[in-house]
Structure formats: C-alpha cells, structure tokens
Amino acid sequence: MICSQNEIKFYNDFQLTNFNTLKIRSSAKIFYMPDNYGEMMTLFRRNKTKNPIVIGNGSNVLFSSQGVQEPIIHTGLIKTVLSFNQTLEAEAGIKTQALSKMAYEKKLSGFEFLIGIPATLGGAIYMNAGAHGQTISDKLVSAKVYDIENNKVLNLKKEEMNFSYRHSILKEKPYILLSAKFNLEKKDKEEIKAKMDENLLFRREKQPNLALPNAGSVFKNPKDCEFSAGALIDKCGLRGFRIGDCEVWENHCNFIINKGKATSIDYTNIVFEIYSKVKEEFNVELEPEIIYIGKMTKDEKEKWKIMKKN
Fold it and tell me: What Cα–Cα distance (Å) separates residue 10 from each residue in 14, 23, 97, 176, 244?
C-alpha cells in the first residue's frame, strides 16, 4: 500500500522482485520513493543512519530472501538532466542507457559504452562502472554528494572522487551521489550510433540480457593475473554448473543466471563454490562485485565474510 510521510511516498512490506535484475524474491520493511534529492536528504536526516540502503536499477545487488529490515530509498524518480553545449549534468536516478541515448541525440560522444549497462548513474559512479575500455569517470568533471555524517552537500572534483577499478570514494565514506557533471565531445551522430550499435552487439553476444535474470558480472577481474575471472571459472570446469535455481551462464562464466526461483542462499552457495574452486586450482582469490543487502543466515554471513575479506 502506498503511503505518504510528509508527502514523501513510501510503501510497507514492499516486494522487491521487480527492483533487482536478478529477480530474487524479497521484501523491504519500508521502501521510499522520493521525488527529488531534497526529499532524499530529508530521509537520511530522519533515519539518522550512516549506512542507508540506496538503490537505482537494482543491478549488482543480491537481496536477501529473508527480507530487508533497513529502510530502502529508491532513486528512480530523481532523474533530471541539464545540458549546455558539451556539458551534461545528470541526477543519480537517471538510467545509464537513457543517458547514452540523450548524449547521442545531442551529438555528444563519451557515453556510447553506457548503452549496454543496466544501471543508474548513482550505481555506475559508486562502482566506477566501465566497459569497452571506458569508465564512467573518464568524462566526469565533478560530483555533488550528500555527506550523511555531517549533514551537508559537497561538490567534489574528479580527482577528489578516488576513482580506480570498480571503486570510488562513495565506497569509502558515508556519501550519497546526488548528481554529476560531465564534459563530452562533439561528434557526428552516425559515428556515435555506430559505436553504440557495436557495443550493443558485443553485449548480446557475450553477456546475458535481462530476459535471463542476472546481477551482472559476479567477480572483479583479478589483478596481476593473465586470465579474467570468467576464464578462471571456465578453466575450473564450472560452465553450466548449477546450485538450486542459480546457474553459471554457458556463454560467459562470470555471470550467474536465475533459472526461475533462485534464492539468496542458492546464489551465495554457488558464488562461494566458484570462489573456492578458483582458489584451490589457481591460488587466486576472486573478489565479488555483488553487494548483499538484507538479513543473512549464519552460513551466508560466514561465506560472504570469507569472500569479501580481500
């Protein structure tokens, strides 16, 4: 049931199946849908938590099948984009695919790689998402973030964002992205469209689309290793490996798909089995990209603690 708390929309016992790309059945005790980032900041102040759960498109996350007790804030309505010449300033809830198409319409290059990434800008910057040799940080000029601990808005330059492989300052501090400013390049629409089409074709051939529910790449590619995470998993003979309704995708072993009724326990067990096999065979400890949200069983807690220690 939709409710209103000082005009900020929220739901009680909200079903999360359609709010995560893995399609795990879970529910949130309370689910907020603020209309703007002013309302979002109000929620942070009201909840007085340094670790709010903020989601956008729900990729790269694993919701607990036991449910989520913490308040969830969804950024889907916070998606204004302003443009001036070669500059785009976008709010956190805009979908990256929509941002890519918007840049194309304005004859701006630099976001072609985003066309194949099922995320929102907030999530993309949080993990410095990338593909095809590009990352979201490449064209970033500055970011507006909310410092929850000190209750203030900060304007951070690119060099202050601590970007690295699948990392940003948003993983280090209690900061939440509000918006970001980018400086793109002017190019012919035909050239931009050709690159977007090339990226989409690559994704269709190499990665599962969301008709096969998945959370995106499971593991980061290991440092100082000649093989990618997917190649290591494949060399362990785990292509098509299945636990419960979770299965290692036949076409790319760094993706796990939900065959229908997968649970967070299924997903945890298969990820831990992959982690253990790769460590045993190659002495490489793969690091999961996936973020677990919600109540863990004792077994899940132990397994994620082992995998996330590095």
Answer: 9, 21, 26, 19, 33
Active-site residue identified among 142, 166, 179, 247: 166
Q: What are phi and psi of 182, to 5 degrees?
A: -130, 150
In the sheet that 152-157 helps form, which strands lie side by side, from edge to edge? 81-84, 87-91, 175-183, 140-147, 152-157
Quick: pLDDT tens for 228-240.
Answer: 999 999 999 999 9
Higher-confidence position of 310 and 262: 262
**166 classed as catalytic:** yes
Distance CA 197, CA 112 (A): 9
Pairwise CA distance, residues 129 & 177, whole Å: 14
Q: Find tokens 């590095």 and name the residue.
A: 310
Domains of the chain: 2-74 (3.30.43.10), 81-205 (3.30.465.10), 229-308 (3.90.78.10)
Tokens of 303: 């397994």
Q: Which position among 217, 247, 264, 300 bears the catalytic label? A: 217
| Distance between CA atoms of residues 279 and 73, nearest Å | 36
Active-site residue flag, 289: yes
Is 25 one of the catalytic residues? no
Tens digit of each residue's pLDDT (9 = 90 or more) over 160-176? 999 998 899 999 999 99
100 within 8 A of 111, measured Cβ to Cβ: yes
